[in-house]
């Protein structure tokens, strides 16, 4: 058992180092000097390393204590972000090469205008101006587009404008879509939304102002857990000590549960000396699975309207007959 644990931990450590090193290599490479097949090899190596890491993580998480699992989840999230950056840079470069075989200079692209620029299809993030979404958008756009040396500033500007809507789009609306304006546009957005203190307050507000659940609806329970985890992850990225907030979070979420579910959690948590948020998450997930199963069973035996109507009539007749019998019996007993 100990030998297996040691092997899995070593695998996690080695693959994490490999993925981090791969990010350094990718961000310092000059993409123009690489052939497409070389970029594909880098991408395949990164995917293989991440798959091995994820498999080892899943296997090890089943063998260790819950306290260690929480730390492992944080590490997995960090490695996942690193892998996403690597894949974003490499895949976007490959996508771009499929649509533009020969690079054009910046001035030529500017003269063509917005209508003539063909942008390759990419799964890019979007941003509407909500503060809580800024850092996620910033990290993903930066890793895929902003630091990609193969994409010139004119295309970066078009990509940036295509990702923005609402208030965020208005911030750079006055800038024309030329390469000369890209860095200014990126700077305007960063100056407007890169406010760590304000973003922190927004996440806390969303975390503590979640609605009370009136009944055990699957969608409501899922939303409660997902929203809580989403903002806890964001707060952790902002260097908040969320790993020590379990007691506060459990109290907060318990107060949002319907009374019956809150009682069930109190019974469940009494088995733990100091229950963790992870344990409460598992409890909620089990509850969701049960509700999903019950919903599936009820929907797997549909009845036609005619059958329901007949059953309703039969039930009404049976109840009427039973009531008449009870009245008759009561009459004779009283005589």
TrEMBL record:
Superkingdom of the source species: Eukaryota
InterPro entries found in the cross-reference section: DUF1759
Pfam families named among the record's database cross-references: DUF1759
PANTHER family hit by this protein: PROTEIN CBG08539, RETROVIRAL PROTEASE-RELATED
Protein name (database record): Uncharacterized protein
Source organism of the structure: Macrosiphum euphorbiae (potato aphid)
């Amino acid at each position: 058992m100990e030998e297996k644990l040691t092997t899995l931990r070593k695998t996690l450590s080695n693959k994490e180092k490999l993925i981090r090193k791969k990010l350094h290599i990718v961000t310092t490479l000059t993409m123009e000097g690489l052939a497409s097949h070389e970029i594909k090899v880098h991408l395949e190596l990164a995917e293989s390393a991440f798959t091995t890491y994820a498999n080892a993580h899943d296997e090890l998480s089943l063998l260790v204590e819950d306290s260690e699992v929480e730390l492992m989840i944080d590490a997995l999230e960090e490695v996942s972000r690193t892998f996403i950056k690597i894949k974003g840079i490499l895949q976007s470069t490959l996508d771009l090469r499929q649509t533009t075989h020969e690079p054009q200079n910046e001035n030529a692209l500017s003269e063509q205008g917005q209508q003539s620029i063909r942008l390759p299809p990419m799964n890019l993030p979007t941003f509407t101006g909500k503060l809580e979404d800024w850092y996620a958008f910033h990290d993903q756009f930066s890793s895929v587009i902003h630091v990609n040396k193969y994409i010139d500033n004119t295309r970066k500007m078009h990509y940036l404008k295509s990702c923005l809507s609402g208030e965020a789009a208005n911030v750079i609306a006055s800038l024309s879509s030329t390469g000369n304006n890209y860095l200014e546009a990126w700077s305007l957005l960063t100056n407007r939304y890169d406010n760590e203190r304000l973003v922190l307050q927004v996440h806390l507000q969303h975390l503590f102002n979640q609605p009370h659940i009136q009944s055990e609806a699957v969608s409501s329970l899922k939303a409660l857990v997902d929203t809580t985890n989403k903002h806890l992850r964001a707060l952790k990225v902002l260097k908040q000590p969320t790993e020590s907030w379990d007691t506060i979070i459990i109290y907060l979420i318990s107060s949002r549960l319907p009374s019956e579910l809150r009682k069930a959690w109190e019974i469940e948590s009494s088995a733990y000396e100091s229950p963790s948020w992870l344990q409460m998450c598992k409890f909620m997930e089990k509850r969701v699975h049960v509700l999903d199963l019950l919903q599936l069973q009820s929907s797997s035996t549909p009845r036609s309207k005619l059958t329901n109507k007949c059953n309703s009539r039969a039930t009404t007749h049976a109840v009427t007959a039973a009531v008449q019998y009870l009245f008759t019996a009561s009459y004779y007993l009283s005589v």
